[in-house]
């Protein structure tokens, strides 16, 4: 490590499809904002980034467009990602830095070399001196306080906005893994599809997300009183606003195909896991992280279908960025994982 590396600010970033979180060495998590940018179509002037930009989703006039620059966990719009990263880095540092920061960024476990280069280039263009990429399941494990260098199998399932990353980690590396580009966003889309086809009602993506958060449930208990919610959308026949009342049993049906795909991905990883590590997982269980971990009863569904104990992280949204923060604090220790 050079002298300038030693005095550089260290920033950890969970560059997520839905949200971007930023951790600074010595200060903790400073930013947790939606990965959204609003700009003018005519001259690409940036109007808003993060929380303010998300508030504009589906509400902008023709001359303003809102963009989510990451799709399925990877960069879909390089220029907008660069703008967004630059905004969050400057907001974190607050003042001009003579020495550029070193940035540790969490990425899905199966990103291609091209996708990795896109993230590295976006970070450098946004002002990073050096960018270090680590796989999100590894970052999540580190963020959960797991010693990834132990000679035992640790299984992490990180259900984010764009990807579900499942990995078996042992001796400081990933032994088997799968990155499925089905996660929180696809659940929102499934809810939209359900309303469109079952209720002839068009709802926005923010409304679908609110339904998921409020009454989303993958295994409703038939003995419990249903959780209900009134939803307003546009009637596809009349074109006028209309309200419908739905419950968690309907939402369970709406998202069943998506949640089954997530469970199938976890099963595939278990099926190719070496026997000794599989034995460790059967005893130690798997750790569920990411925003998807908050979906009611997803942990129970995974446990029922895989016969593996499931422990939901206490702070599932923060695991990856906390892990990048730990790596920031111990770059030499974790030098072999990137």
Per-chain topology:
Layout: H1 3-7, E1 10-15, E2 19-24, E3 28-34, E4 37-40, E5 46-49, H2 51-55, E6 64-67, E7 70-71, E8 74-75, H3 78-93, E9 102-107, H4 113-125, E10 130-135, H5 136-143, E11 154-159, E12 164-170, E13 173-180, H6 184-198, E14 201-202, H7 205-215, E15 228-235, E16 241-247, H8 248-271, H9 275-284, E17 286-289, H10 298-306, E18 310-312, H11 319-329
Parallel strand pairs: 1-9, 9-10, 11-17, 17-18
Antiparallel strand pairs: 1-2, 2-3, 4-5, 4-6, 7-8, 11-12, 12-13, 14-15, 15-16
Describe the structure.
With 338 residues, the protein is of the alpha+beta class. The two termini are 15 Å apart. It contains 11 helices and 18 strands. The chain is flat, with a radius of gyration of 21 Å. It has a 5-stranded mixed β-sheet, sandwiched between helices. The chain has 3 domains: 3-139 and 319-337, ATPase, nucleotide binding domain (Nucleotidyltransferase, domain 5), CATH 3.30.420.40; 151-182 and 257-312, Nucleotidyltransferase, domain 5 (2-Layer Sandwich); 184-254, Alpha-Beta Complex (Actin, Chain A, domain 4). The longest helix is centred in the C-terminal third of the chain and has 24 residues, at 248-271.
